[in-house]
Amino acid sequence: MSALNLNADIPKPSHSFMIIVDITLSMNTKDIKINGDQFSRIRFVKESVEDAVRELPCGTKVGMGIFAGYQTSLLFNPVEVCDNYSDLVRSFSFIETNMIWTGDSEVSKGIYNSIKTLSKFDPNTRLVFITDGHEAPPIAPAYRPRFDDPKKHIKGLLVGVGNLKQTKIPKINSEGEQTGFWSEDEVMQYDPFTLGRKGSDANEKLVDNESSKVDPYLVEQIQATPGKEHLSQLKEKYLMLLSSEIGFSYLRLIDGKNLGKKMHDVSFSEWRKVNTKLSGIFAACGFFFLMLAFFPVTLGSRKLSV
Description:
The protein has 306 residues and is an alpha/beta fold. The protein has one domain (12-277): von Willebrand factor, type A domain (Rossmann fold), CATH 3.40.50. The protein has helices spanning 41-55, 85-93, 107-121, 216-222, 236-246, 256-265, 279-294, 296-305; strands at residues 7-14, 16-22, 30-34, 37-40, 61-68, 71-80, 126-131, 144-145, 156-160, 167-168, 170-172, 178-181, 206-207, 231-232, 249-252, 270-277. A 6-stranded mixed sheet has the order 6-5-2-7-9-15, sandwiched between helices.
């Protein structure tokens, strides 16, 4: 029977993921070294996501979206990874920072926007949001965006990418060529509310807590660097703060294999019928009965001694 390569639809706990990739300009920063070569964050993310999908079991579904400004855009709905692997890999390769529709990078708003979008689309879909955590313009502790719906949000994973050391951000033209680096006078160094300006949304609600203005712990966690905002680093403390506030897990991106494992560790989405090969089950049964035929006395004695 094991040689027949039979399949059957068997109910299994399964995952459905929407992977959102930060494509803002700081993701061009080349601060990841692999085997002596320098990788940009966006290139490292694309290769890691491809490797992660390879680690996921058949029956898992993966979709893709991108983040820029304060909004996310869903590129395609989750599809089964084994049947669509080649198309998924091809889709990942197209992700580039020149797809941005705005130069801002309001990370926390992007995460909240992704949660609200997926809650309406499919609450069972798990969010995997990959970013360096670089807020541009920066935010102040007293004027943080507020997530309004903590009881209804979906589950997920925040993934941080980049080096903890500050690094120059390359300028990339439409042809994908580097034309220098962003300088101090080309980047907003302070949050707009402190400067008396409005935010990206006139109706947005903020965490306006007077005590946060002098809370050294919160200031440290937000990791704003006035005067050095033209440099970029993985804002790991900030991403860990955000993940704790919305009940997500946090992972620093080291490689795709580890990402795939962490994704699979997220509580599964739902029970779903998955096409499963039965040859392994028949082979295991055959091996058991073969052992029983050759060693009946030994197996029988073990049963008596129990």
